[in-house]
Design a protein that fits this description.
Blueprint (H helix, E strand, L loop, with lengths): L1 H28 L11 E9 L6 E6 L5 E6 L5 E4 L5 E6 L2 E5 L3 H4 L23 E5 L3 E4 L16 E11 L4 E12 L2
Antiparallel strand pairs: 1-10, 2-3, 3-8, 4-5, 4-9, 5-6, 6-7, 9-10
Length: 186
Amino acid sequence: MIIEQTRTACTGLVLFGLACLSASGLAGAHGALELDDVPEGFVKASITARPDIQGLSSLILSAPRPGIMLRYNGEQPLTVLGVEGEAFLQFTRTGVSVNTASPSWGASNDKPAALASDGTASDTSADPTWVTLSDSGSFSWLDPRLNTLADVHHEADTQKEWSITLRGADGELDQIRGTLMFTAYK
C-alpha cells in the first residue's frame, strides 16, 4: 500500500514538473511582450547652486518627472518667480501662497482642483491674487523648468541647465540653479 502511494505521488510530481517546463517553453515561443509609449530614458535633476538666503533650503524630488521642494524660515517674505518672470509663489515662515493669476500656476499639473484655473489665459501684468497653499513654510511642486528634457528626442546622454529666480522682500533677485541630465535606458 505504501509503495502504491509513493508511486502515485512521484508520478504526479513528475507530471507537474513536465507541465511547468513545457508552459515556459510555449510562453518563450511567442517572444517578448511588445509595449507602446515606453520612455527612451529618464530625466534626473540636480541642484548645482543655492542662494545664500537665511532660512532657505531646497531639495530635488526624484521621480519620473522631477519636482522641487522649498522650505523657508526667514523673517521677510520670499517670492518665487514663474517661467515668465511673474510672482508665482510667496513663502513666509508660516505659510505658502500662490498667485492664481500666474501662468506658471496655470501650467502646473499638481494644483488642487479647488484652486484650478477657469481656463482663461493668465495676464502677467495683472495684480497677484494670492491663495494659501500651505500653513507651513514648505511646499513642493512640479516646475516646468525641471521638465524641459522630457519631450525631446534624445540621441545620447543630454544635459541642460535650469534656474528658478527668487525675489527677496528688498527686491533683490537670486537663483537656485541646477542641471537636468537625460539618461537613456540601456
